[in-house]
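As the next step, I wrote out a protein sequence along with its fold in token form, included below for the reader:
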Amino acid sequence: MILFQEATQEVAEEVLSEEKTLSVIDLIVNGGTASVIIIAILFVLLFVALYIYFERVFAIKAASKIDKNFMLQIRDHVSNGKLEAAKILCAQTDSPVARLTEKGISRIGKPLEDINKAIENAGTLEVYKLEKNVSILATVAGAAPMIGFLGTVIGMIIAFHQMATSGGQAEMGQLASGIYTAMTTTVAGLVVGIIAYIGYNHLVVRTDKVVHNMEANAVEFLDLLDEPM
């Protein structure tokens, strides 16, 4: 008899645990129209964040590739007065460093300060290209958690409104279900925000490395022009 009661209790506990288990889709759908709309917005933001991240990663990776002998060849061409050959080499190399070098070569013959200014202006444009749409990623990182929290607040308002209009007769199970379903929007917002934040910081680090490489090569080129021919 005791064994039968224990077995019955275990079966009942399993049934209750199964009843309490909800999938992610159930949590989203049961949250009401407001929850579904907010989750949909967060999914769109997640897609945008991932698209921008991977698009920028590939663009930055391509910009960081350059032949190690590039500056040596430029040095040889400039030292021998072969400026056209140096320009052709820069045109054939698709990288920010090559474009900055080409801008400097086109100014050879002018004061060194003018050449430096031209390279700085070209560098500013290259940095702008590298940072294209990265600010959107930062915006998603900040906005997604707030949008998720907005969904939770709306869900809480609806739950307490049900309690108020029911004259205190609202079932606690329904209220609790509505509340933890509404909390899913906060979780979704935090997940999207964290992904976007990590992606943004990774892109900033990668971009800084490319910018540092650009500055180093620009200084090397200016030192080349300052050497006595």
